[in-house]
TrEMBL record:
The keyword Lyase applies. GO terms for biological process: heme biosynthetic process. The gene is hemH. GO terms for molecular function: ferrochelatase activity; metal ion binding. Pathway: Porphyrin-containing compound metabolism; protoheme biosynthesis; protoheme from protoporphyrin-IX: step 1/1. This is Ferrochelatase. It holds the Pfam family Ferrochelatase.
């Protein structure tokens, strides 16, 4: 039985043209239209266009500064690495890359798998921490794409997977190696480890998303593996709409640390990212660095371990029960509590006590 594994991703424009960026932003804002009231589809589209036009100039400038987003080639490399890993494990599986907001879109990936006549699909979001507008939305889009093709194909949906032990090891090792390479002691009271996580509208948390809980527990475990007693957590919010977002904002965290005379430097770990992109290369490396230096803090940013050789084995473990056709519970999968789909499985759900 052949399997198509679709690696689901957010996407970013590789070329920072106005046409590309505006279209990208419109898709994002339309996808999150429920955050504001609108009576008709036309009103939703018009609001998305207005928000995109307003945000585009600043984002184009960010992309120009970093030379375009490297997200797509990094994601393609991960898909290729997973294909090699599954072949080494003896499985008949093809991998496909599908993006939520840039090409190749999720529908393109599903169409490619359909053309290859695979027998089943596995949806694998490359979002370590399960979120409503990322993980859950991407899985829903994949199911809809299959329905649009009138393709009655079995679909296994993976959601939260940040608890995978080797993934925790990768993140902790990556921070440790970076600190060692720069002569930094993370246990020194003058050095503060700052986790920076992608923000999310509080609307999704109020609707039942556990994203903030997952972020907090992941930060705690990675900190314990590093032997760090004290750390700070901030969110990178994108306040294009006048709605509440996750708190505290990472900029506020840095400003507060600047007021602490005992702290001389910060080591920023982009804990929720599995690719380098505008949020890391521009928002952190340029904007947050500038804010840190303005308040007298030395700034160090940990690179995202997107090309760690061990990551392909993490992805291989995540999909193995579904391509190997054995009980996902053997790998500690349980029914996802963040998704309405009966086919969604995660590593985050609590164990049922008998």
């Amino acid at each position: 039985m052949s399997t198509g594994v679709v690696l689901l991703n957010f996407g970013e424009p590789a070329e920072p043209t106005r046409e590309n960026v505006v279209a990208y932003l419109e898709r994002i804002f339309l996808n999150n239209a429920a955050l504001e009231e609108a009576d008709t589809e036309e009103e939703k589209r018009e609001r998305a266009r207005q928000l995109a036009e307003r945000r585009a100039p600043g984002l184009i400038e960010e992309y120009e500064e970093i030379g375009g987003s490297p997200l797509k080639p990094q994601a393609e490399a991960q898909a290729d690495a997973l294909a090699d890993e599954l072949a080494e494990r003896g499985y008949d599986a093809d991998t496909y890359l599908g993006m939520q907001f840039t090409e190749p879109f999720i529908a393109d990936a599903v169409e490619a798998a359909h053309a290859d006549d695979v027998d089943r699909l596995v949806a694998l979001p490359i979002y370590p921490l399960c979120g409503a507008s990322t993980t859950i939305a991407a899985n829903e889009e994949l199911r809809e794409a299959a329905d649009d093709l009138d393709w009655d194909v079995p679909v296994a949906e993976i959601t939260g997977w940040h608890r995978h032990p080797r993934y925790n090891e990768i993140r902790a090792d990556n921070v440790r190696r970076f600190a060692d390479a720069h002569g930094l002691d993370l246990r020194d009271s003058a050095t503060e480890l700052v986790y920076s996580a992608h923000g999310t509208p509080r609307h999704y948390l109020e609707e039942g998303s556990r994203y903030d809980t997952y972020v907090e527990e992941f930060c705690d475990v990675v900190g314990r593996k590093l032997g760090v007693d004290s750390y700070s957590l901030g969110y990178q919010n994108h306040e294009n709409r006048d709605i509440p977002w996750t708190e505290p904002e990472v900029e506020d965290v840095v400003e507060e640390l600047g007021d602490d005379d005992s702290v001389e430097r910060i080591v920023v770990e982009p804990i929720s990212f599995m690719h380098e992109q505008s949020e890391t290369l521009s928002e952190l490396d340029d904007e947050l660095r500038e804010e840190a230096e303005e308040v007298g803090l030395d700034f160090y940013r940990v690179p995202v371990p997107h090309d760690d050789d061990r990551f392909k084995s993490v992805l291989g473990d995540l999909v193995e029960p579904f391509v190997g056709d054995f009980d996902p519970g053997y790998y500690q999968y349980r029914q996802c509590q963040c998704s309405d789909s009966p086919d969604a499985m995660c590593l985050n759900a609590p164990v049922e006590r008998i």
